[in-house]
Specification:
Length: 315
């Protein structure tokens, strides 16, 4: 994707995602350049997870194997292309009777959440969780839908979700996103302008704007517009059609994203900015999955309580 001006970058990056090589030579945006000026240059690191915590209680299976009665479905606009630009249309809204966009199927002999991807929306577990290790497996089928037919497969694990369905772009609840997108799985995206995670970054000029990637020992920043995301430390995803294992460790307002055993993101000071500018720690919430243009399968979604986080070590 070619770099473009800041206003268009924000909208297009939300649609396209943050990964990818900068293919253009457009003039840098002065406002974004000023924000990125203090970022150190990215240096590739080999990261591993150490001191993995022992669960402090029994596992909870978020898929009951029978139906999706533990989940609520909300759908955005009939035309997903309106998601980031719509001013007048109404979302499809709640689906209390279920919807073909989110279904429970049997795949490879196991109960599996199938996300169609045609209409954008969310499926939200009714439980409220904090201090846990969430593990799941996902894979792509290879089916993509407009307006992302020629773009990487895209979905997301949205955690610490709160508030009203459809608050964000008429489609999702506010949350912290563990991005699930080809080339960028593990990236962090605040879903909702009030959500404020903090992480350590470096500038990777091979990326499209905002050219920020997680790096241990990097510059501490709050992830917020216009530098609205931070790319995963590395691409640890397996090919389309193969199962991937994701681990999310959350303790209080800190979290770690792990892809196929590789730690790719560490966050702290997760918070919600109030109308007076103050920030409240974000320590718990709902588990939410997206439908965002690609058929996706999720299985073995389990959650276990923990009392400490693992450590990320640079090898």
């Amino acid at each position: 994707m070619r770099r473009v001006g800041l206003g268009l970058v924000t909208a297009l990056s939300l649609l396209v995602g943050a990964g990818g090589v900068d293919a253009g030579a457009a003039e840098p945006d002065p406002k974004l350049e000023a924000i990125l000026r203090g970022d150190p240059d990215y240096r590739a690191q080999r990261l591993m997870l150490a001191d993995i915590p022992v669960p402090s209680g029994p596992a909870i299976n978020l898929l009951n194997g029978r139906d999706l009665s533990d989940w609520d479905i909300w759908l955005g606009y009939p035309d997903p292309a309106l998601t980031y630009v719509n001013k007048t249309a109404q979302p499809l809204g709640a689906r209390p009777g279920g919807d073909p966009i989110f279904t429970l199927v049997r795949l490879d002999g196991e109960p599996t959440l199938r996300v169609d991807g045609t209409t954008w929306g969310s499926i939200v577990h009714r439980g409220t969780f904090g201090d846990y290790h969430l593990r799941l497996e996902f894979k792509w089928s290879g089916k993509r839908h407009a307006p992302r037919l020629d773009l990487p497969e895209n979905n997301g694990l949205l955690y610490h979700s709160f508030g009203t369905p459809g608050t964000v772009y008429g489609t999702w609840m506010p949350s912290v996103e563990f991005e699930i997108m080809r080339g960028s799985t593990g990236m962090v995206v605040p879903v909702g302008t009030m959500v404020k995670p903090v992480t350590d970054v470096a500038r990777d000029r091979s990326l499209i704007d905002p050219q920020r990637r997680f790096m241990v020992g990097g510059r501490p920043v709050t992830v917020e517009a216009p530098a609205w995301n931070v790319e995963a430390a590395t691409d640890a995803e397996r090919p389309v059609g193969e199962w991937n294992v994701l681990d999310l460790y959350v303790l209080g307002n800190r979290s770690i994203h792990v892809v196929n055993g590789v730690p790719v993101m560490e966050l702290r000071d997760l918070s919600v900015q109030q109308t007076d500018g103050s920030r409240t720690p974000l320590t718990r919430g709902h588990i939410q999955f997206q439908s965002e243009g690609a058929e996706t399968f999720f299985r073995r979604i389990t959650l276990q309580p923990i009392t400490r986080l693992p450590r990320i070590v640079v090898q």
